[in-house]
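Retro notes, structure queue

What went well: the backlog is down to a handful. What didn't: a couple of records were mislabeled last round, so from now on we paste the full input next to the output in the thread. Example, using Cytoplasmic glycerophosphodiester phosphodiesterase from Maliponia aquimaris:
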Amino acid sequence: MVPLAPVFLDRPIAHRALHGPGRPENSRAAVRAAVAAGYGVEIDIQMSKDHHAMVFHDYDMKRLTGHRGPIQQRTVPELADMPLLGGHEGVPTLTEVLRDVNGAVPLLIEIKDQDGRMGPKVGTLERAVAAALDGYGGPVAVMSFNPHTMAELARLLPGIPRGLTTCAFKALEYPTLPATVRSHLRAMPGLAEAGASFISHDHKDLDMPEVAAQKARGLHVLCWTIRSPADEAKARRIADNVTFEGYAA
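Corresponding output:
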């Protein structure tokens, strides 16, 4: 197990960076704002058509750029020329964001599932993330909802802390996942085998016995996504740190 550095626990973590007016989520502007404020930064990673790690949350481009279609159908140059709605910059690469952070604050990287069913068809995006992180000296940790991705990251990045993004996997929130898969993921599989040192759990379900079990094993518990001081205070009864947005944590 690679321990999570204390710096990931001593300050709130800005969800999709410190986004707001003029600073779209997961944008370089939002990242720079989080760094200036001294917050940790959480970002999401999707893959471009030419197999680069892109800082972007959704599978489809519409909500964040106004252009329809999967991000996997766009190349890095095309994405660079596609401004995020509410901002002036295109979709950034992970390499660009690493330059902006430059080790100043902790960086929590969530790799989005590319299998479609949280299954074993992984590797290409994980290798792109590993390539981007090669030589990066700042505090960084990686995580994913997909336990196969976490296992692949353990192989590719054995010296970097890794964790599992977790929740109750309710049917209404994950309608594309079969009940058997949701039940499997709810049990938080693969944590010990992959040497995970933390989970990042949905704050609404922090009272799940699975969370208590992992905390008893010595894993740190982060949580997502806190949107008010009241929710933060409640979450901190269990969680070691929060991922927040929409208020000054």
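Agreed that this is the format going forward. Reviewer comment attached to the example: Strands lie at 13-14, 40-47, 53-55, 107-111, 140-144, 162-166, 198-202, 220-226, 241-244.
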